[in-house]
Amino acid sequence: TFAFLGTSVLLITKTIDLEHIIRYASLEVILFLVGMMILVGLLKDTGFFAWLVSLMLRVKKMTATKFLLIISVISALLSCAVDEVTSIIFIVAAVFEICDYFEVDPTPFLIMSVLATNIGSSGTVLGNPIGVLIATKAGLTFEDFISRAFPLMILCLIATIIMLRFWYRGSLKK
Questions:
Q1: What pLDDT was estimated at residue 98?
Q2: Contacts of 91 (CB under 8 A, 6+ apart)
Q3: Which of 18, 39, 132, 172 is such that its CA lies 20 to 30 A from the CA of 33?
């Protein structure tokens, strides 16, 4: 809303003309973000994110390591499907809710979910507005990203899980 309001002010004051806005505004990225917000609104209304939390709570013999692994994989895959900003908002809410339920410190899980979301967003075109910009400007397809970026994303996610599992080993034991 603010971007459209600001653009309107620039047009009304003739600071910029319509031709330059169309040329340089990256409308594909703006429309992508609008579409993602609509999709996330629909997912929220259908209870998808509440279902994810209940699914995590039903894991048998939940341990801190299992939870770290689950939250990492869900964060990465969710950010592949919807943009990373939207993904992290819902994952952080889920982490707080689950950590309150188990009465544990959420810090390691929050850091892991943020890193996993960031890593996961590079796995597909949909994960990051920059991915949309790169794909449209370079003529890349969704399949190009899946075949090249997704395997690298998986390797980076595994390395990050291993490093953070080691880094937070004391907190995870508690």
A1: 83
A2: 71, 74, 75, 78, 113, 117
A3: 18
Contact criterion met (CB below 8 Å) for 103 and 92: no
Beta carbons of 49 and 43 less than 8 angstroms apart: yes
DSSP the chain: -HHHHHHHHHHHTTSS-HHHHHHHS-HHHHHHHHHHHHHHHHHHHHTHHHHHHHHHHT-TT--HHHHHHHHHHHHHHHHHHS-HHHHHHHHHHHHHHHHHHHT---HHHHHHHHHHHHHHTTSSGGG-HHHHHHHHHHT--HHHHHHHHHHHHHHHHHHHHHHHHHHTHHHHH-
Contacts of 147 (CB under 8 A, 6+ apart): none
Which tokens is 76 given?
């990465």
CA 70 → CA 77, 79, 153, 173, distances in Å? Answer: 11, 14, 16, 17
| pLDDT band of 41, cuts 50, 70, 90 | confident
* Distance (Å, whole) CA 75 – CA 40: 15
